[in-house]
């Protein structure tokens, strides 16, 4: 089992990396790009047969406390 | 006064902080990150550096170290805590200070002298800074852009929690004097109770003329005065 956590900067937070990449894409001729947001992807291996609901609860807790900073970041958790 | 300077793996301004405190006539010792107790301490300094390699986010891992639980307790009991650079990041991650520090707007690491305007003398960290004095102190960071949401910023202003702002030599809060894109040129803030503060610049690196500036000493002198008042009040 695997948990996947995608962390992105909140919309109100300055994202200079995203802005720079967006400008680079425009320079390269890729049109229609209206925004680039650069975050993090974390993959967590879980023991086979782990209870999905319990893992989701624990990982949401971990994502809130450690894996993301709720002041500046949003996260999305998937378990598969 | 006894200062405790925390030491995390990859702290690198810990010795500078100890040196500055001793140079200014007080005692300082290092406290290892695995220690669960601070011992006899009047003030804690969370120093600059790259605690735990800045992994995940600056300060994110350090906040869970045993010593930080002791620092939280110390702060909750009214103890005076100063975070410098990475120490500021650790204190925001720990929730002891509002806001967060994100990547500099130009994505560059800035290592240079900057000018600081003191926004209020009403704190344990600024009371002795002479009125109108612009402090010249160094910065050295890649992630020092202060951010807080609108609600937090409004609260910071209402409670007078903004302590220092980046300015030019004349004390003007211009955009070009802002080295990292910090919201409203904010370089340092304190908590609502005014006993915990953090700033990105390094006052401990500017406490003697040999280093090009001794303006940083005014921040330490403010802390010494506050601690002295506290001791006197406790004895009375």
> Which value, in Å, is the CA radius of gyration of chain B?
16 Å
Give me the CATH architecture of chain A, please: 2-Layer Sandwich
Radius of gyration of chain A equals 16 Å
Average predicted confidence as pLDDT of chain B: 97
Number of domains of chain B: 1
**Domain tally of chain A:** 1
Global morphology of chain B: globular
Strand order of the largest sheet of chain B: 2-1-3-4-11-10-9-6-7
Distance between the termini of chain B: 18 Å
Q: How would you sum up the major sheet of chain B?
A: 9 strands, mixed
The CATH topology of chain B comes to Rossmann fold
The CATH architecture designation of chain B is 3-Layer(aba) Sandwich
Give structural attributes.
heterodimer; A: 80 residues; Mth169, Chain: A; three-stranded antiparallel beta sheet; 26% strand; B: 236 residues; alpha/beta; Rossmann fold; 5 helices; globular
Write the layout of secondary structure elements.
The complex is a heterodimer of chains A (80) and B (236).
Chain A: E1 2-9, H1 16-27, E2 40-45, H2 52-67, E3 73-79
Antiparallel strand pairs in A: 1-2, 1-3
Chain B: E1 2-7, H1 14-23, E2 27-32, E3 43-46, H2 66-76, E4 80-84, H3 86-93, E5 100-102, E6 110-118, E7 135-141, E8 145-147, H4 150-158, E9 162-167, E10 186-190, E11 196-199, H5 217-235
Parallel strand pairs in B: 1-2, 1-3, 3-4, 4-11
Antiparallel strand pairs in B: 5-8, 6-7, 6-9, 9-10, 10-11
């Amino acid at each position: 089992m695997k948990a996947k956590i995608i962390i992105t900067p909140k919309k109100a937070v300055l994202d200079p990396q995203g802005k720079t990449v967006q400008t680079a894409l425009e320079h390269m001729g890729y049109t229609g790009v209206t925004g680039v947001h650069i975050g993090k992807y974390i993959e967590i291996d879980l023991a086979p047969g782990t209870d999905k609901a319990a893992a989701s609860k624990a990982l949401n807790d971990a994502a809130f406390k450690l894996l993301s900073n709720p002041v500046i970041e949003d996260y999305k958790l998937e378990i598969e | 006064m006894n200062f405790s300077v925390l030491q995390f793996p990859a702290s690198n301004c810990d010795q500078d902080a100890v040196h500055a405190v001793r140079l200014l006539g007080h005692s300082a010792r290092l406290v290892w990150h695995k220690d669960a107790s601070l011992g006899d301490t009047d003030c804690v300094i969370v120093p600059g550096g790259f605690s735990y390699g800045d992994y995940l986010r600056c300060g994110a891992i350090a906040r869970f170290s045993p010593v930080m639980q002791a620092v939280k307790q110390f702060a909750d009991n009214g103890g005076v805590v100063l975070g410098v650079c990475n120490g500021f990041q650790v204190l925001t991650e720990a929730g002891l200070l509002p806001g967060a520090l994100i990547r500099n707007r130009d994505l560059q690491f800035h290592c240079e002298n900057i000018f600081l305007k003191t926004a209020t003398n009403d704190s344990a960290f600024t009371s002795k800074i002479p009125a109108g004095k612009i402090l010249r102190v160094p910065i050295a960071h890649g992630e020092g852009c202060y951010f807080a949401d609108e609600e937090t910023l409004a609260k910071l202003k209402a409670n007078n929690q903004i302590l220092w702002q980046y300015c030019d030599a004349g004390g003007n809060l211009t955009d070009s004097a802002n080295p990292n894109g910090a919201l409203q040129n904010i370089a340092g803030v304190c908590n609502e109770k005014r006993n915990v503060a953090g700033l990105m610049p390094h006052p401990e690196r500017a406490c003697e003329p040999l280093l090009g500036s001794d303006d940083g000493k005014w921040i330490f002198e403010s802390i010494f005065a506050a601690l002295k008042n506290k001791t006197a009040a406790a004895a009375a």
